[in-house]
Amino acid sequence: MKIAQISPLYEAVPPRLYGGTERVVAHLADALVAAGHEVTLFATAEARTAALLVPVRDRAIRLDPAPLKSDLAAHLSMLHEVRRRADQFDVLHFHVDLLHYPFFEDIAGRTLTTLHGRLDVRDLDGAYRRWRQFPLASISDHQRIPLRHAHWLGTVHHGLSPWLYPFSPRPRSRDDGGYLAFLGRISPEKRLDRAIAVARRVGWPLKVAAKVDAVDHEYFRAVIEPLLNDPLVEYIGEIGDADKGRFLGGATALLFPIDWPEPFGLVMIEAMACGTPVIGWNRGSVPEVLDDGVSGRIVDDIETAAAAVTQVATLDRRGIRDIFERRFSAAVMADGYLRLYRRLAGESAAEVETRACLP
Predict the structure, then answer these.
(1) Do the two domains 2-161+329-356 and 174-327 of this chain adopt the same fold?
(2) Where are the domains of the chain?
(3) Cβ atoms of residues 68 and 56 within 8 Å
(4) Domain spanning 174-327 has what CATH number?
């Protein structure tokens, strides 16, 4: 198949540091090429990809030092280029939410839109009713709940290359610098404060590798920064793929103490790739990703999370890696999307038009 992958422009593909969607796009594009398909990637010029790259901006928006920049203008320029080349592809796979909808209404049946974010947001319901002809992919079944009426074609869990993060058969022992890990973004919904409370409860060191977005600076200053003074807590800052394997592989467990309807949680499978178990709060996609008692523990409060630290230390790390390879590899993800692409090819234009006219 001839497949276009249309990435957001906020991060490089894959990201140099933090970044979820662009990382998934990178691994999906490479896996589709490895499966023998012709893949064209629309992204920034920094992309490292096995696909044919169409660079639509010189660098990723977030790390661009220019003081003034327009993410809207950059994405509209990219969509113009995608539209100009649309006839070259069997499927156009968008990862930019719904920004492309007004420009591709006449060929909606040849598009797939993966929604990567939370959907319990005002105005989304009306928009997805208005553009019901566009087929959608969710990244977890739980993600769909606020928009059950939407045109869902299927759910495809995220996947990563098995070679990205090396398997670590054993973490550091507690007597040899053992630690718990927190990886991701510092924000109210990610609840680093809970992770610190768990570490204090069990007396284990906690290493924090995370970024702080501008919108969360005040939260970080007022709530999190005072907690970092604890001698058990080591704040490393933002890290990229080159450092994640060592960081996650050395940990006894990854703490994933979310307080929001997490659409997927890529960091969970990054940890699983290293063989590291995850202690995750029972929110959003966590029960879909974790096998409780096998790849980690699903908990509801700080007390059960603290008890889970000892429990997960006895889990089979090789078995955790095996679950990652069986469920969350890039090849498995690509196969899931290929099934959706083939379903698109079998859906008639009349069916798309009928769906678009539904109330």
Answers:
(1) yes
(2) 2-161+329-356, 174-327
(3) no
(4) 3.40.50.2000
CA diameter of the chain: 66
Q: For the segment 266-309, what is each residue's pLDDT rounded down to a tens digit?
A: 999 999 999 999 999 999 999 999 999 999 999 999 999 999 99
Ramachandran sector of residue 347 (left: φ over 0; alpha: ψ -120 to 50; beta: rest): beta
Q: What is the pLDDT of residue 132?
A: 95
In this prediction, residue 17 has a pLDDT band, given cuts at 50, 70 and 90, of confident
**Are 43 and 131 in contact, with CB atoms under 8 Å apart?**
no
pLDDT at 171: 81
Q: With helix as H, strand as E and coil as C, how does 176-244 read?
A: HCCCEEEEEECCCCCCHHHHHHHHHHHCCCEEEEEECCHHHHHHHHHHHHHHHHCCCEEECCCCCHHHH
Strands 136-138 and 206-211: unpaired
Sheet holding 296-299, edge to edge: 233-235, 206-211, 180-185, 253-256, 278-281, 296-299
CA distance 22 to 9: 8
Give the HSE-up count for residue 100: Cα atoms under 13 Å, Cβ half-sphere.
34
Q: Long-range contacts for 169-174 (Cβ within 8 Å, ≥24 apart)?
A: 169/275, 169/317, 169/318, 170/317, 171/249, 171/250, 171/251, 171/252, 171/276, 171/317, 172/250, 172/251, 172/252, 174/204, 174/252
Q: Which residue has the tokens 């422009």?
A: 9
Per the listing, tokens 């709060």 go with: 281
Query: Topology of 2-161+329-356 in CATH?
Result: Rossmann fold (3.40.50)
Angstrom distance (rounded) from CA 173 to CA 348 = 59
Closest CA to 280 of 208, 168, 203, 195: 195
Q: How far apart are CA 111 and CA 343, in angstroms?
A: 11
Encode pLDDT of 315-335 as tens digits: 999 999 999 999 999 999 999
Neighbours of 58 (CB within 10 A): 9
Rg (CA), the chain: 21
User: pTM of the predicted model, to two decimals?
Assistant: 0.91
Average pLDDT for 176-183: 87
**CA separation for the pair 79, 92 (Å, rounded):** 11
